[in-house]
Amino acid sequence: MTNNVMAVTRKDFDNVMVPNYAPAAMIPVRGQGSRVWDQADNEYIDFTAGIAVSCLGHCYPPLVATLQQQSQKLWHVSNLLTNEPALRLARKLTKATFADKVFFANSGAEANEAALKLARRYALDKFGDGKDQIIAFNKGFHGRTFFTVTVGGQSSYSDGFGPKPGAIDHVDFNDLAAVEALMSDKTCAVMMEPLQGEGGINAANQQFLIGVRALCDKYNALLIFDEVQTGVGRTGTFYAYQHTDIKPDILTSAKGLGAGFPIAAMLTTGNIAKSLSVGTHGSTYGGNPLACSVAEVVVDTINNDDFLAQVKVKSAIFKEALTQINNQYAIFSDIRGDGLLLGAELNEQYQGQAIAIMNQAAQDGLLILVAGANVLRFTPALNIPEDDIHAGMKKLSQAIEKWLAA
């Protein structure tokens, strides 16, 4: 039996796909490391890594090998049974973090949904009815399920779908006084990204985190860290909370955890985990052997002092190159972020032009991202070669020069 390989073009997207995305004109067909090639064999340097997902680049040989090996053993068994890769991965994640227990899912939104449900259920179990308020932050992003998109602090993503889940309040990021004003014995959880990705590469400051942790302790509320984008080495530590002096009660992880293979995890303590008893939550594919075998290799590779040290070195190279571009073109007001989750904010003269620069860069063979209308976002593979960083920055400089001249 042979597969019939059908020729497709970008026009087919418009004909057969739901129009909730607006993908680029080119279609990538293969990748290796930090480079990809399209249908016309044009080459691109990839500073996106699939939005912080392909953390070891494209077709990383050890990941290819483990996926091939596991594919010949066991694909799926359902959660009526457990499996060896899932158990090994859970042990490695708990050993590497504050957590005692792990729940596996398929995406960051699913992990965040589980975290929010757990927080509400734990509050009910421990304190009874009425303790259901969730506090989150403006410009936050936590996924696209109706619960997570409502907790996310960008109403444009949640408007237009009918009545929203209730008892959710938002305040500005890094505004401890605003959090304190909202919190009470009715608060069951505070949810945040330690470094907001989608919202503009905005980092939580240390005193803010310490203050929120203290308020959660005072009011018996859980602190949930959404580390879907910041986790698995992205900021230079295995999880971003490890930069700080605090620990969350629940942490969510996805994106880089599977390096391109769909997997997510919610991590928490043994005491809190008890509230998700048998039958309270589930996932058909969560914890499947294929995904967990890949994630095992990812964790083994990245949760390593030498590997994490080179993430910080490459971060410095990125920041220096962006600074040099800014010295030449005076286009950025700020260059910020940690590790290889970086943002360059456009100054007042170029407000709203991030997407236009991203598109020009793609025409010149460089894939970058935006974080809102005014911030260029860079989330390359954590093992990107330094030569590719320099080559990509040269392309970015050329793209900015062309865009300014247009």
UniProtKB/TrEMBL annotation:
It comes from the Bacteria. InterPro entries: Ac/SucOrn_transaminase_bac, AcOrn/SuccOrn_fam, Aminotrans_3, Aminotrans_3_PPA_site, Class-III_PLP-dep_AT, PyrdxlP-dep_Trfase, PyrdxlP-dep_Trfase_major, PyrdxlP-dep_Trfase_small. This is Acetylornithine aminotransferase. PROSITE patterns: AA_TRANSFER_CLASS_3. The keyword Transcription does not apply. The modification N6-(pyridoxal phosphate)lysine is found at K255. Its main location: cytoplasm. Binds 1 pyridoxal phosphate per subunit. One of its GO terms (biological process) is L-arginine biosynthetic process. The lineage of its organism: Bacteria, Pseudomonadati, Pseudomonadota, Gammaproteobacteria, Alteromonadales. Its cofactor is pyridoxal 5'-phosphate. It catalyses: N(2)-acetyl-L-ornithine + 2-oxoglutarate = N-acetyl-L-glutamate 5-semialdehyde + L-glutamate. Pyridoxal 5'-phosphate binds at G108, A109, F141, D226, E227, V228, Q229, T284. It comes from Moritella yayanosii. Homodimer. CDD domains: OAT_like. May also have succinyldiaminopimelate aminotransferase activity, thus carrying out the corresponding step in lysine biosynthesis.
